[in-house]
């Protein structure tokens, strides 16, 4: 699953693996909720836009 951001995708080898559990952690105001919201939208996007067509 693509993050929708080239830098994050590069850092994670192309995105997150599907079918696995991933944990976001870090200090307050680091952007954890924003990233989780972005990923929840990304999975609903069509394959042509890097989503999972869900």
Automatic annotation (TrEMBL):
GO terms for biological process: DNA recombination; DNA repair; meiosis I cell cycle process. It comes from Batrachochytrium dendrobatidis (strain JAM81 / FGSC 10211) (Frog chytrid fungus). Residues 1-54 form the RecA family profile domain. Gene3D superfamilies: P-loop containing nucleotide triphosphate hydrolases. This is RecA family profile 1 domain-containing protein. Pfam families: Rad51. InterPro entries: P-loop_NTPase, Rad51_C, RecA_ATP-bd. One of its GO terms (molecular function) is DNA binding.
């Amino acid at each position: 699953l693509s993050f929708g951001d080239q830098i994050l995708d590069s850092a994670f080898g192309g995105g997150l693996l599907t079918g696995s559990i991933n944990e976001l952690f870090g200090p307050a105001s680091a952007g954890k909720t924003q990233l989780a919201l972005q990923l929840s939208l990304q999975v609903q996007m069509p394959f042509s836009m890097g989503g999972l067509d869900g």
